[in-house]
Amino acid sequence: MDSQELEHLPGLTAQEVQINLKKFGYNDLPADKKRSVFFLWINVLKEPMFLLLLASSGIYWFIGDILEASVLFGSIFFIIGLTFYQENKTEKTLLALKELSSPKATVIRDHTIVKIPSREVAVGDIIVLKEGDRVPADAQFISGTNITVDESLLTGESVPVNKEKDSSFYSGTLVVRGQGIAKVTNIGTESKIGKIGKSIQKIKIQKTTLEKNTGVLVKYLSLTAMLTCLIVVLINGIFYSNWVDGILSGITLSMSLIPEEIPVVLTIFLALGAWKMTRSNALTRKMSVIENLGSVTALCVDKTGTITKNQMDLSQISVRGSRTSLGDIQNLPEQFHELLEYAYLAGSRNPFDPMEKAIKTNIYKFLANSNFIHESWMLIKEYPISSEVAAISHVWKVTENQHYVVATKGAPEVIAKMCNMPELETKKLHEEISVMAEEGLRVLAVAKASIPAGSIPNEHKALKLTYIGLIGFIDPVRENIGEAVIECSKAGVRVIMITGDYAGTAKNVARVIGLTNCDEVLTGQDVDRLTMDSLQHKLKTVNVFARITPEQKLHIVNALKSNGEVVAMTGDGINDAPAIKSADVGISMGLRGTDVAREASSLVLLDDNFISIVNGIRSGRSIYANIKKAVAFVFSIHVPIAGLAILPLLTGLPKIFYPVHILFLELIIDPLCTIGFQAEKEDKNIMNIPPRNILAKVISKKEMIRALLKGFGILICSFSMYIYLVPHFGEQFARTFTFVSMIFGDFGLVFFGRIKHFLENKAFLIIFSLAISVLLLAISIPQVRDLFNFGYISPLQFIIAAIAGLLSTLYVYLM
């Protein structure tokens, strides 16, 4: 097929192009209408975390602490940034779908071959396709030579599909061999890739349980703090006519009750956790997904390109019943030389097809310095694959030879017929093919012929061939997959393989990587026949799915979620995107993955290594465990803060805390300590325990009671000392001594709970050193001491107060 032949095809005229573009639109996927800034502001104003930060900021503005008010108010813009990102996620996915199409398309218009932007391809256009081209739109095949297309991005099958007259091409697929022309039938959202884009667009992203629970918690505590503040102000104003002191006391009490550290904990832990995971080749696109990673119970894996490498390796070759694995040898036995020679002659010199690349790689590996490559031979004729003959034959002119050499490879049953193979030999051939197929191999047969010059038959099936042997290809499994599957099993995570490939291949791969119950396979036809209830029942035991369409993948993921599973879905193709987005944790491949899959996912594996998924699950569990520790610590320390703020009001003693003290405790000591929890090392047994229930609250009732009891220990000790010290040493001395004791009680909660590995956490050591230094400055410098209403205490008294605080939490180690 040359340019002159193509120019005889009329194609669309300029007028027809304009008519069709007006009627069907451009070859685009329209993005959602962008949300207005006002709409985003309204959404943010509804968030409990925003209300908490805004309330806290208002309090600090009210008491005149402009710096802290500005910091909290600035964090509001961080929330707005996250909201913008989430709202634009669907738009980015659709944009990635558009960019996936080839930037340029070759078409025939007005009898002329022209290149145009792919978005300008119109319905009815005649497109020209050759090796390496992305198909710009859905089209119907008109004519071509030996054209095959890689449709793995849509179907999940790694084996290229042969195209014949009237067969269909799909937008975004890749031509791997041959050339041809086709007529465009569907563009934009009406193409197959466009319909997948629309299915992604309809899926809504839900908040994680952590976000929901935290939102309810902080909203409740904020309302409680505001109500308490109002009551204190009214009591002081109405009964004691001291409105100023009432307002000050109310603000102090309100500040002591508002756990503003909780949103800080979430932001810092998730952000730093995401950063750490990036260093382990897992890019977090949505920080809150870290919570779900630790709860994953079902990991749905696409075979092609995720478990396997999405490439074809020549694995085994067979001649007259003698087989050898090419990966196990350094030198190829002589009996296999002819087989490899003719397999190469039946392909392209400069192949694009993965199987032909594998053949070329091996012939140059084993026979490079021999006479089996035949660079000087000239290709006279090519018989392409067709519906009648599922084989390809090349006729070669041999220098100084009156005969032509024919090399053929194709479907074994077709080659057997073309070789007029006897029934007994055919039976043995099929037995050998079955054995190779059970090992997950894609099997082709190779044959040869010699014909006199000038007597080349017109029909492919007229060739009289001599059988040589079989060649078996395999899409190899990635390294370390087996170990990752075992670790997932120990962690209580089921690995479920969902593929568009054949059941036999899927079963073999499942067996290789160690999936349980791998002999039971459900196909796409089985899934279609099952009701949702039946599918949910089957999903309790079945771990292998084959011949699955993109819609069925999404159906399976949703059925698993209906079973109460927390689902992670991995993949790299366009076909995976809807299921990736619907899953609780969507994981895409960074190197081999499409933009569509990456944009739809919440986690991207930068190295495409399956083991990184396991590392991600481990990190998710560890991060969430540290969040629980930090939240429990926040509740523990708020007991003495709130208690020491309210008890003097009830007992008639002088106030212990003023707003500046609460500010010091909450914005210096507590947040710094929570950062220390983030640096905690993961538990060695964290992958040997069942996944966390995703519906469980951040902190259970039992954990809450335990945390409150720890805080009550500090409260009882500190207030008892205050009661004794006020009449004997005065208000300012008592306040200073109690404040120092309480801060060291704060330290004790951390220290005694992890005494065995406390020194391993450098963050804690740095934080405590910094906090103690600031505290010493506040006590030692007269101007700062006056600001805090402190009295002078000697170094010995400071040490006694510190020891008292530590002893008040010693029992924590025994709990």
From TrEMBL:
SMART domains with a match to the protein in the record: Cation_ATPase_N (SM00831)
Localization per record: Membrane
Keyword rRNA processing listed: no
Membrane-spanning intervals of the chain: 69-85, 220-242, 262-278, 630-650, 656-677, 707-727, 733-752, 764-784, 796-814
Signal peptide: none
Gene3D superfamilies documented for this protein: Calcium-transporting ATPase, cytoplasmic domain N (3.40.1110.10), Calcium-transporting ATPase, cytoplasmic transduction domain A (2.70.150.10), Calcium-transporting ATPase, transmembrane domain (1.20.1110.10), HAD superfamily/HAD-like (3.40.50.1000)
Domain of life according to the entry: Bacteria
Boundaries of every Cation-transporting P-type ATPase N-terminal domain copy: 1-65
Topological category with respect to the lipid bilayer: Multi-pass membrane protein
Principal subcellular localisation of the protein: membrane
InterPro entries: ATPase_P-typ_cation-transptr_C, ATPase_P-typ_cation-transptr_N, ATPase_P-typ_cyto_dom_N, ATPase_P-typ_P_site, ATPase_P-typ_TM_dom_sf, ATPase_P-typ_transduc_dom_A_sf, ATPase_P-type_domA, HAD-like_sf
A Gene Ontology term for the protein's cellular component: membrane
Keywords: ATP-binding, Membrane, Nucleotide-binding, Translocase, Transmembrane, Transmembrane helix
SUPFAM superfamilies documented for this protein: Calcium ATPase, transduction domain A, Calcium ATPase, transmembrane domain M, HAD-like, Metal cation-transporting ATPase, ATP-binding domain N
GO molecular function, one term: ATP hydrolysis activity
PANTHER family: CALCIUM-TRANSPORTING ATPASE
Protein's UniProt name: Cation-transporting P-type ATPase N-terminal domain-containing protein
Organism: candidate division WWE3 bacterium RBG_16_37_10
